[in-house]
Amino acid sequence: MVVYRIENVHLAYPGGFCLVVPYLSLAEGKVLAVIGPNGAGKTTLLNTLAFFERPKGALIELFGKRLKKPQIDLNLRRLISVVFPRPYLLNDTVFNNIALPLRIRGIRNTAAVGQACEDFKIAHLKTKNALKISHGEMHRVALARALVTQPRLLLMDEPFSSLDPRYKDTLITDLRRTIRDNHLTTVFVTQDQSEALRLGDEICVMKNGRILQRDLPSRLFSHPASRDVADFVGIETIIEGQVVKKEDNLCSVKINGTTLEAISACERGDNVFVCIRPEDVIISRQDEATSARNRFKAKIIKIEPWMLEYKVAIEAGFPLVSFVTKQSIESLNLKPEKEIFVSFKATAIHLIKR
Amino acid sequence: MQFILDGIQKGIHLTATLDPQVMVIVKLSLFVSALATAIAVVIAVPLGSLIAIKKFSGKKLAIALINTGMGLPPVVVGLVVTLFLSRYGPLGFLHWLYTPIGMVLAQVIIATPIITGLSMAAVQSVEQKFFLQIIALGATTRQALWIVLKEIRLSVLAAVIAGFGSIISEVGAVMMVGGNIKGQTRVLTTAVVLETHMGNIDIAIALSLILLTMSFIVNLTLTFIQQRKAR
After folding, report:
1. In what order do the strands lie in the sheet with A339-344?
2. Where are the domains positioned within chain A?
3. What single DSSP character describes residue B143?
4. Topology, domain A238-353
């Protein structure tokens, strides 16, 4: 079900920047990740969705209601929560900070505040001053505050950009669970592809104020619609899989009918995205014994020039991409339909937990 | 030299014994300036905050006017208010000239731009995104403004104290509008001027000491507030 639909959004700024969105819709309970380089218009798009910007002549339909005036009704606006890159907390206790959106609505609901604290594992901080806790904890408070009202739409603008990676990881896990549990429609802006992959059901790539492509994560990376998209997302191979076995740090990941081995902290049973960089994929003519733990018989699909090298698309039971030099193409006599072997090390695979 | 020392000694004595003649003056001073500050706050804090957050044409002009107002010479305010309140002036029917109410009016005019300017600066010091975040949590503009003002309450308090400090110590406006009538409109500053002219150095010194002490307390409070913020 579509909960939010905008059409004909055209916002021009004095500096020459222009946001042009002919059509965008959000499906209920789905998470849309918006990625793109700096100045792509990601934040402007989010601000438009949050009604901070009022595009003239745009069609906006929210929760089945067509908005006639450019102003939004307060009760409708209160179904939306927005999270900014910085937490912007009040000089007050964590509890009072999280209770703020409820108080604004004239509601006293200690249980809801307690639940939000539990969801983000900050119950032990309730009585502390929100400006005297750690940076990461502040972000948790900001998220708990945004979700305490049980909004129907969550908009987040680079919510983890200033967090260190290890802290970010657990926070994303908690946020993802809360979003899923509440079946919460979410749009979030990020510059980080792995964040987009971890949270997004769909990914939308923006550049110069326009949406270039919106697709399922695995499709976006394997089939970038344009050179601009490919340039931004890289042409890393990204495949969905599941960890079926784990010994020490060595994970066996099942994709389609094949099993890969990868070094990762992921656990058995985790659904993951398997990421393999083209420069790590080695092509050989015979099945040579090497230290690489992953070796597959494969077939070349396509060879095309890419920057100063050649990009070789390979089918090995799953799609793969490799970069090779002109010299290698000649010496190995590579051409489409040719049967080859590919190998890559277990350490070359990067797993992103879903 | 001796008469100065004598004056100081007698002044301290008058202050310490809460001399009734002195206390009447102190009470009226406090009453007029406190009431004027209270009225100015009600006008100035919302006005300053609104100018800070709203986008409107002529905003720069408004800010320039307020900044000019922050330095209004009290004696000019006194003159204008006197002219308006005088028997044949536009507000003559109020019969406020030479009354404490007239003095309050004059001091409100002096304090309002000061408190407006300082609270405007205080609200402007808050990041626009902070304000936007409060709005994004479902607040109306009025709710968001209230939350932001509470957040910067120390700066707002500093603005209020600065306003009070400026009017408790001014002499020009209260002199002209109040007329320095004994027991009715005589306040600390006007009394100091009169007693000095009359040669009552001891009383003048006593009143000055009280005024200085008040000024010191005001500044001490301001310093404490600023130090607390800096922490």
Report:
1. A282-284, A339-344, A294-306, A309-315, A319-324
2. 2-233, 238-353
3. H
4. OB fold (Dihydrolipoamide Acetyltransferase, E2P) (2.40.50)
Q: What is the dihedral of CA A103, A107, A111, A116, to 10 degrees?
A: -50
Domain count, chain B: 1
- String of b and e for B50-65 (b: at least 16 CB within 10 Å)? ebbbeeeeeeeebbee
Question: Tokens for B170?
Answer: 């001014």
In this structure, chain A runs to a length of 354
Q: How far is CA B161 from CA A349, B67, B132, in A?
A: 64, 18, 29
Contact call for B138 and A91, based on CB within 8 A: no
What are phi and psi for residue A239, nearest 5 degrees?
Answer: -130, 145
> Tell me: the pLDDT tens digits for A182-231?
999 999 999 888 888 888 999 999 998 899 899 988 788 777 777 778 77
Whole-model pTM over 0.80: no
Residues of chain A contacting residue B136, judged by C-beta atoms under 8 Å apart: 50, 52, 80-82, 84
| Closest Cβ–Cβ partner in A84, A88, A104 for B139 | A104
User: Domain with B82 in it: what CATH number?
Assistant: 1.10.3720.10
Q: Which class is domain A2-233? A: alpha beta
pLDDT in tens, B65-124: 999 999 999 999 999 999 999 999 899 999 999 999 999 999 999 999 999 999 999 999
* pLDDT at position B170 over 60: yes
CB contact (8 A) between residue B133 and residue A78: no
Closest CA of chain A from B92, distance in Å: 47
Most A CBs within 10 A among B53, B133, B142, B155, hence the mutation to make, goes to B133
For B138, the closest of A86, A90, A149 (CB atoms) is: A149
Structure tokens at A351: 């797993």
